[in-house]
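tool_call: predict_structure(chain=1)
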Amino acid sequence: MKFLLLSLALLVPSVHAQDWAKQRLEKSTRHREWVKVQHDGRSVDAYIVYPEVSAKAPVVLVIHEIFGLSDWAQLVADEFAAAGYIAIAPDLLSGKGPNGGGTKTMDANMVGQAIRDLPADQITGDLNAAADYALKQPSANGNIYVAGFCYGGSQSFRYATNRPDLKAAFVFYGGGPTDDSLNRIKAPVYGFYGGNDARVTATVEPSKEKMKAAGKTYDPVVYDGAGHGFMRGGEDPTSTAATHAADVKARDAAWAKIKPLIK
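tool_result:
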């Protein structure tokens, strides 16, 4: 855990300083707004983006990285909307910052501590409240998907064990449940991993074995040469990572795969 907190201390400032993502968001023509969703006496800030389409659209629940609801997390929600879906991204750190604020009010140490201490049932409640809010919108067609990244990737896999009406779960570089909870999964799970991210990619084969034994659908793909966080790193024009070229390729391939899966 000390290593995790140190990593966050080094990375969060750079992740929060995503001017390129903020600038792209500001150019978006789609309707975007902040809403508050409620459950069990808790208020959760959520960012929702609507597609510019003529028919009712499916909902994609976006689960942010370990860095909280950053500018990029908001941008990826906008990108899902650009593809034709209603995207909603709850800030799981709502209420954890100064004066009851969320991600944007917190420094690296606060983010690390808060992420570590989030109760599992509260996370599920936050996600359910956001998903239910989006599904109740007049322009929603009733179909719900979940996509998570890094920390959110693991949470999207876990959410599939708790949300039986999911149409599919998209796990970006996150590990799967190691207990019997995966027996509750109803939806197909699709995984997206970087070949140069052995810490996470090493969980793929164990997850495949467990899901197969449980009679569940798990379809992972590992992109050669890509690193952890390639969906963000692959579109970051400031990236100096040695894996950047592979990250770009992996990001494009992942989008090409995920879009036909959302009906």
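agent: The longest strand covers residues 140-149. Proceeding to next step.
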